[in-house]
Write a structure and sequence with these properties.
Blueprint: H1 8-34, H2 40-48, H3 67-79, H4 86-101, H5 104-116, E1 121-124, E2 140-144, E3 147-158, E4 165-173, E5 180-188, E6 194-198, E7 209-219, H6 231-267, E8 269-270, E9 273-274, H7 279-307, H8 311-340, H9 352-357, H10 360-363, H11 368-379
Parallel strand pairs: 1-4, 2-4
Antiparallel strand pairs: 2-3, 3-7, 4-5, 6-7, 8-9
Helix pairs in contact: 1-3, 3-6, 4-5, 4-6, 6-7, 6-8, 7-8, 8-11
């Protein structure tokens, strides 16, 4: 059997999503952000066309595909200038975790709604003192009869104000060892004791960032996702898609910036020739394109491994894809702004805001330094310094 990077179905999906994205574009998203609103129209149309739930099981209204297909959707929307960041969280992390590990009731309750876009779910792991280190999370879950009581804090949690619930990562005591182990809980937005505070960000996006406080939030037994003894496995089953989707977000953004710069370099004439004829302009843009393409190859590998059930292999590849895409995105945006000169900093061309946005893929959901730690230890077998 011949192995292909993308099937004809994948290519058709790319073309269809690109057409949708180009009907909305950067101007649409800029207006939404300026109004302090959310891209409801684009979200709803993408859902109706089956794009938001393309990775979820067909039995629950999804497309029956995987992260490979979902990453294509986010990349192409990003390349059109209108990425939907909540795709990283709602269908990719939360939808995947529930589809793989949720109870029958949780699947029935959430997956059809996540697939058709009528409900969204946020994801809460990062903490003020622990970052995303699952071993240092201090949000605790303790039993009270058949209920669970959650107490703790989370920070930099996207879209909590619009999400119907948040998938919270807490730690519960293991009855056998007494040690704390990670567990995942579905916390409704209006749960008593569940408070949020918006964080003032220099990054301007439709999805706002929040600090969460869980003050003895009481949850029924059915709020626990899957098996409390398999929490770490379930957690990483969601984190690998998060890294792959962050790579897609970054590649899409880099492609969008590069396309604006290429158009400008073809049309902008100084003396007799377009500036794109000069190698000092052309070569850095070509290099940025190559690095975006290389990052996409690693993203495709990570998605293939994940969708085939190779969680260990996907973990390594997803981290590498996220690293490569973040670096390529920052470089592409920087070079694109530089190509336009002063125009690259104007509102008319809309590239300057990407200087801040492009840093997201370097920082979140895990920093480039932590990925280098992962590769140093897990791949190269080098000793730890911590």
């Amino acid at each position: 059997m011949t192995t292909v990077l993308e099937t004809d179905e994948h290519k058709a999906l790319r073309a269809a999503v690109a057409a949708l994205g180009n009907r909305y574009g950067r101007d649409y998203l800029t207006k939404v952000v300026a109004a302090g609103a959310y891209p409801d129209e684009l979200w709803s149309e993408a859902a109706k066309l089956g794009y938001l739930g393309v990775n979820l099981p067909e039995a629950y209204g999804g497309g029956g595909g995987g992260i490979a297909e979902l990453s294509i959707v986010l990349e192409e929307l990003g390349a059109a200038g209108c990425p939907l960041l909540m795709m990283v969280v709602s269908p990719a992390i939360c939808g995947t975790v529930i589809a793989r590990f949720g109870t029958a009731d949780q699947k029935q309750d959430w997956l059809p709604a996540l697939a058709d876009g009528t409900r969204t779910m946020a994801f809460g792991i990062t903490e003020p003192d622990a970052g995303s280190n699952s071993h240092r999370i201090t949000t605790t879950a303790r039993r009270d009869g058949t209920d669970w009581i959650l107490t703790g804090r989370k920070v930099f949690i996207s879209g909590v104000d619009i999400a119907d619930a948040t998938l919270i990562v807490g730690r519960a005591e293991d009855a056998r060892t007494g040690k704390l182990k990670p567990c995942l809980f579905i916390v409704p937005r209006d749960a008593p004791g569940f408070e949020r505070r918006q964080i003032d960000m220099e990054l301007h996006g439709a999805e706002k960032q929040f600090e969460l406080t869980l003050d003895d939030v009481r949850l029924p037994a059915e709020a626990l996702v899957g098996d409390e003894d398999a929490g770490l496995l379930q957690l990483f089953a969601g984190l690998n898609p998060e890294r792959i989707m962050t790579a897609a977000f970054a590649i899409g953004m880099g492609r969008y910036a590069l396309s604006r710069a290429i158009t400008y370099a073809r049309e902008r004439t100084v003396w007799r020739d377009p500036i794109g004829a000069h190698q000092a302009i052309a070569h850095p843009l070509a290099q940025a394109h190559i690095e975006l393409e290389l990052a996409r190859l690693m993203m495709q590998k990570a998605a293939l491994l994940y969708d085939s059930g190779d969680d260990a292999g996907a973990g390594e590849a997803a981290n590498m894809a996220k690293y490569a895409a973040g670096e390529a995105c920052v470089k592409a945006v920087d070079q694109s702004v530089h190509t336009l000169g002063g125009n690259g900093l104007t509102g008319e061309f809309g590239l300057a805001s990407l200087i801040t946005a492009s840093r997201v893929a370097r920082i979140a959901p895990v920093s480039r330094e932590m990925i280098l730690n992962y590769v140093s230890h897990q791949t190269l077998g080098l000793p730890k310094s911590y």
